[in-house]
Amino acid sequence: MRIMRKYLCLFILMGGLGFSFLQSNAQSIDMQFVESPNTDCANNTACFLIQIRSTDGGDYIGNASIRFTYNSSAILFDGFYSGGSPDLAYLNTGAYTDINFTNDAACTGVNYLEHSYDGRFAGDFLLTLVLLGNTNFLTPCINISDGAWYDVSEICFDLLDPNADPMLEFIGVENGAPSDGSPNQTNFNDGTNDVSNKYSNGSFGHFTSPVLLSCACPVNLLIDEMTVLQASHQAANLIETNGSVIVGMGDNVEFRSNELDVHPGFEVDLGGEFAFYNDPCSVPISLSQSRLNTNNQNSNDEDKAK
Q: What residues are paired with 218 via a beta bridge?
């Protein structure tokens, strides 16, 4: 029953846009996800930009829908906004920010409505762009024919697992005409905003990575009695221990960073191996101190033992 309601809501959100896949332009729209510099691992926030471009003659964007799925065990969003149903709007988890192809007071041409989005169902997200009118007499303010990437929006999720693949994947036909009869998939009207004039979809730049780039390398790393020791721990600046941290018999653990600061309680048991290397990783954005929280383990004072 919930699945039926879900698709009903998706069609309602997109109602009024008109979908008739009678023909598709030779021009196409590429899409990609990129990690936003607003990702904040210390505060469990993962942010991504949706970007589009055309490298084969596409210029203006009319009504459009961008749909994608994601790994809801890694990141999570829960919210809904539609200009036609403001009473239904809510945002419980995450954040959404229009960037381009939205209502712009500075635009003297054909303007857009604010973005509508449906992120109520974990792992599924639908974004809708609405152009007010067509381009017969005025033109939209953004022309994408230069081949550059243009930000559509930024979506921030709650970060549930920084070591899991977020698996952000666009839904629709890649490198081809949008499917007839599938209006809930990714598709773009051209600048005429005639529903029979669809751009072809170009390449889909999904975001699939074992870890978020900005979470893979913390600036400073605190290892304490709640940390489950791994074979290797790495930071851009400092690794610091606190309390009981024990490298037990049979364990082989290495710390790699610019500096190491061990405190009483760190120890290496007989049969355990530990090494420190001045081998910091690179961090793409400034992050505050990270902390690894998991199951109990113990330790004692040595900055290098092997």
A: none
